[in-house]
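Dear U.,

Please find below the material for section 3 of the report. The protein was modelled together with copper (II) ion; I have listed the sequence and SMILES used, followed by the predicted complex structure.
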Amino acid sequence: MKNLNRISPRGFSLILFAIALSFGLFTSCKKAEATSKKDPETMKIYGEMEAELTAPPLVPRSVGNRAATKLVINMEVVEKEMEMTDGVSYVYWTFDGTVPGSFIRTRVGDEIEFHLKNHPDSKLPHNIDLHAVTGPGGGAESSFVAPGREAIFNFKTMNPGLYVYHCATAPVGMHIANGMYGLILVEPEGGLPPVDKEYYIMQGDFYTKGKNGERGLQPFDMQKAVDENADYVVFNGKVGALTGDNAITAEVGETVRLYVGNGGPNLVSSFHVIGEIFDKVFVEGGDMVNKNVQTTLVPAGGAAIVEFKVEVPGEFILVDHSIFRAFNKGALGVLKVEGRENTRVFSGQVEEKAYQPNAVASNEINDEVIEAHLDGALGEQMERGKSIYAQNCLACHQATGAGIPNAFPPLASSDYLNADVHRAIEVVKRGLNGEIEVNGNVYNSVMPKINISDEEVADVLTYIYNNWGNNKTLVTTEMVGKVK
Ligand SMILES: [Cu+2]
């Protein structure tokens, strides 16, 4: 207080206070005026209809400019075994048999009559807490329903936005971890502006007794869930729900809108589409629109609407940019865009060539043979091979051919190399990855395919084979040509 007074004399702070006060009064008047016209609470209801519900990644038709209505929602809780990934299954608890549950689309001012039915085969009671509900528990207590029963409750959609719904039966975390969540969209008066494609994507983290990929029916692991140590982080309930034949699609020139939710139970999603920029993000599913966004945060129990126009064809990868989740735990999907290339926006690769800023001049390479002054054809091939080696192989396999422990295998006295020349040709022409053993040491890395001519492959391999204690194989262009 003392400090403040010294900086701003009393008179000045009084003026400030007065300005703040009048500004506050002014804006609150304006707000009252705006909402009095269209208070959802007193909005008139026209007719009654049953809500169209859709399984992910689809969404129901937009509300357009229909009036507020009485909307009947019928949802069924189903506990069922489904695939988590190849060879791994899980007993999911679901709203309507899918993870996430059916997408609900409504508009502000609708009067919802919600019917929650629990399938007679269920083992447990369940309920639903919709974040779009204004009322205790978001409807949880009112919808609590035992197997073979149906619970009904009503609510009014007071606030437009994209909201998560989930089961809130104890232990809540376990019901959510088993897949009990989905999205409900409350459109504003007049509906959201139309776009070309809309999809429904929801992230969730899963905790299994066995670790990621361990086969068979995997039970839920409570301890891992408490520790937030997820085995799977996925979009739409399983690994591959949005890849391969399940990829979502669009045509060049279209605008895509994604309704993105995060069921959690634990992890926050850093939602990103590789190779696209979100033109618009309805931050946290609310009214605030951010523009030109690379990655948007989708909290557990939260959502976001993202929109972008696709200008070029190709595969655009949807990820949680906590990137090990994408590539090791499943949080990866594909948007496949078809249509005409647009080189003004993106050229694709124009050229690929050698870059060797520290190129060791080939005469610095440590070898024995050339020092012996080989003459004739072999000598010339060795000279060519040596400079090809310096340009294309040395950076990894080193000037001495000794490689680097645990990273690049040796070519000097390599049993792998000497055992099979055709295989060695394949390695250079096609690249190599996966586990191999060289001189008793295991390497599990990636060698890119080397883009050089068949003649150059012959020269460089002849050079290596006739050097560093290898078995002096002569490699010809014809031998290399046979390997495609
Ligand atoms: Cu439940």
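For the text of the report, you could mention the following: The two ends are 81 Å apart (CA to CA).

Regards,
Y.
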